[in-house]
């Protein structure tokens, strides 16, 4: 069944659903498809329609209230079928084994599950995002000899738009019902408050519905998963899963820091290679007590692609769109190339920190009366050390390898706080831990204390690594689909 609540006047949810999957981004769609294969009866609820609408998107309004302005609260996610995969860039990397094994320099707990627990699903996940022909093997690079950095590689999805690619399959499935323009607004627990009894849904006409599945998965993305749980106060004043005041805390991004610019590229090293990726070695991360990172060195780079310019680009777009003359001129140009120039950019791990968090805004509500989101994004001394150390060490490594010289971003050296960009990778707000004192979900992504409520997506990451999050989201979603199928006796 494929239903759009905007087009219905007298709709009722049926009975007998095994699993209600809420949210249709990469996480929700993957979980629904995995459960479909097992024969489970699945209901997939999506707040938006098949296209972007102002009506749905405005629920993502929120305020950045931390010491560092966060630009991606509203623009870094999409609220319609397919979710944020409708504008992801498709870069895929994965956590490294070391992210599961090493002693972290921060106090928060790490993954309670292993690398293999997650990446046993990697082959299947690669097919889902269309990168099965590409490899993550470290490039064998005899000319690069360093004890501080290993070569690294990422894969590039087309990028796969989950809504477009999997719509027909879901529509045709006999055991899956998809309902669009269905806002999940609350969860009501049963009498002993150990299980979800009802999912409460609202349409844009103000009509409310309830549905009573056996299992519920919330997969709204890491910002919204936290906002939703904090707002779900029908049974607990502090919200669902928040008995230890952990929901929304430990928000993590990947810093998009430009470490510096090449000032000399005289080396033959680059002629054969073009772009180049590096990860710090485990020994260096341990010795220097820093986080992980993917460093991209791109001589002759095209600055158009660097997130550091995002706020500036936004400002320029606003100014340009307000003037016909500027707009006409701008449309003749679409790249800004600085010949021979090059920047060293990063996907840099942010340390998990409880004070970096999603909260509810006491003064602003959405049209269903739920508090809007406030994000306090901040960095700490470990993050500053990670940024500075990586800049210095990349600079040294380039000189040692006779590959070039780097003019390190002056802000990093002087203040340790450069103009921080981010990648729209939202993580950590319902972190995974073996104990409810340290995390919101257990190793199966189940909310501690609630028997039938699960969380999908990168909000469960206890650490962020130096990797793009979506391939791992897909792996964890396949794993969750398997887990629920087993619970239902269908595996
Ligand atoms: C510009 C940009 C570029 C990116 N590039 C990359 C990249 O190159 N590589 C990478 O790995 N990642 C990238 N990402 C991140 C990637 O898009 C996310 O990691 C991924 O989409 C998260 O998937 P998700 O299913 O958890 O959440 P989303 O994709 O955000 O999906 C959440 C879904 O839940 C729905 N929803 C929300 N609230 C409700 C509600 N109350 N009721 C019902 N449904 C609801 C939404 O409509 C949406 O469909 C990028 C993101 C952006 C913004």
Give a description of the structure.
The protein is α/β, with parallel strands linked by helices and 491 residues long. Helix content is 27%, strand content 21%. It contains 15 helices and 22 strands. The model is unreliable at 301-308 and 334-340 (pLDDT under 50). The chain has helices at residues 26-38, 54-57, 72-75, 97-101, 115-119, 122-128, 162-172, 222-231, 269-273, 282-288, 310-321, 324-330, 381-400, 410-415, 470-487, and strands spanning 2-4, 19-22, 42-45, 62-64, 91-92, 149-152, 155-156, 176-180, 183-189, 196-202, 208-211, 215-218, 254-256, 260-264, 276-280, 293-299, 342-349, 357-365, 371-376, 405-408, 421-422, 453-455. Strands 6, 13, 14, 15, 16, 17, 20 and 21 form an 8-stranded antiparallel beta sheet that branches. Strands 1-8-3-2-12-22 form a 6-stranded parallel beta sheet. The two termini are 24 Å apart. It has a domain at 2-9 and 16-134 and 157-252 and 353-378 and 427-487: 3-Layer(bba) Sandwich (FAD/NAD(P)-binding domain), CATH 3.50.50. α6 packs across α15 (470-487). Bound molecules: flavin-adenine dinucleotide.
């Amino acid at each position: 069944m494929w239903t759009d609540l905007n087009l219905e006047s007298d709709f009722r949810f049926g009975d007998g659903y095994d699993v209600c999957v809420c949210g249709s981004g990469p996480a929700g769609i993957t979980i629904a498809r995995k459960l479909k294969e097992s024969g489970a009866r699945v209901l997939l609820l999506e707040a938006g329609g098949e296209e972007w609408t102002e009506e749905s998107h405005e629920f993502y309004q929120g305020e950045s209230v931390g010491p560092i302005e966060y630009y991606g609260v509203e623009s870094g996610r999409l609220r319609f079928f397919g979710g944020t995969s409708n504008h992801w860039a498709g870069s895929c990397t994965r956590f490294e084994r070391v992210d599961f094994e090493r002693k972290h320099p921060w106090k928060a707990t790490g993954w309670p599950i292993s690398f293999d627990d997650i990446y046993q699903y990697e082959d299947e996940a690669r097919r889902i995002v269309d990168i099965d022909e590409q490899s993550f093997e470290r490039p064998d690079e005899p000319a690069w000899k360093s004890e501080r950095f290993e070569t690294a590689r990422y894969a590039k999805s087309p990028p796969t738009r989950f809504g477009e690619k999997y719509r027909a399959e879901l529509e045709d499935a006999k055991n899956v019902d998809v309902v669009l323009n269905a806002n999940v607004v609350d969860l009501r627990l049963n009498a002993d408050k150990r299980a979800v009894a009802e999912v409460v849904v609202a349409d844009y006409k103000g009509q409310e519905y309830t549905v009573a599945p056996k299992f519920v998965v919330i997969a709204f993305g890491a910002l919204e998963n936290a906002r939703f749980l904090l707002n779900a106060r029908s049974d607990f004043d502090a919200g669902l899963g928040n008995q230890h005041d952990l929901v929304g805390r430990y928000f993590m991004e990947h810093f998009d820091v430009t470490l510096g610019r090449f000032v000399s590229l005289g080396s033959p090293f680059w002629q054969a290679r073009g772009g180049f990726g590096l990860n710090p070695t485990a020994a260096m991360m341990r010795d220097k007590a820093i986080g992980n990172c993917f460093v991209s060195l791109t001589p002759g780079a095209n600055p158009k692609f660097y997130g550091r310019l995002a706020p500036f680009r936004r400002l320029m777009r606003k100014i340009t769109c307000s003037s016909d003359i500027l707009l006409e001129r701008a449309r003749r140009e679409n790249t800004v190339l600085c010949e021979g120039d090059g920047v060293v950019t990063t996907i840099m791990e942010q340390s998990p920190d409880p004070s970096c968090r999603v909260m509810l805004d006491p003064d602003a509500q959405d049209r269903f009366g739920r508090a809007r989101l406030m994000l306090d994004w901040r960095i700490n001394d470990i993050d500053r050390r990670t940024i500075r150390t990586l800049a210095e060490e990349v600079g040294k490594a380039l000189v040692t390898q006779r590959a070039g010289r780097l003019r390190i971003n002056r802000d990093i050296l002087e203040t340790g706080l450069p103009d921080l960009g981010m990648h729209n990778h939202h993580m950590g707000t319902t972190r995974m831990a073996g104990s409810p004192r340290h995390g919101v979900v257990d190793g199966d992504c189940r909310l501690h204390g609630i028997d039938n409520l699960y969380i999908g997506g990168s909000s469960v990451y206890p650490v962020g690594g130096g990797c793009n999050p979506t391939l791992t989201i897909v792996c964890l979603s396949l794993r969750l689909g398997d887990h629920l199928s087993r619970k239902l006796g269908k595996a």
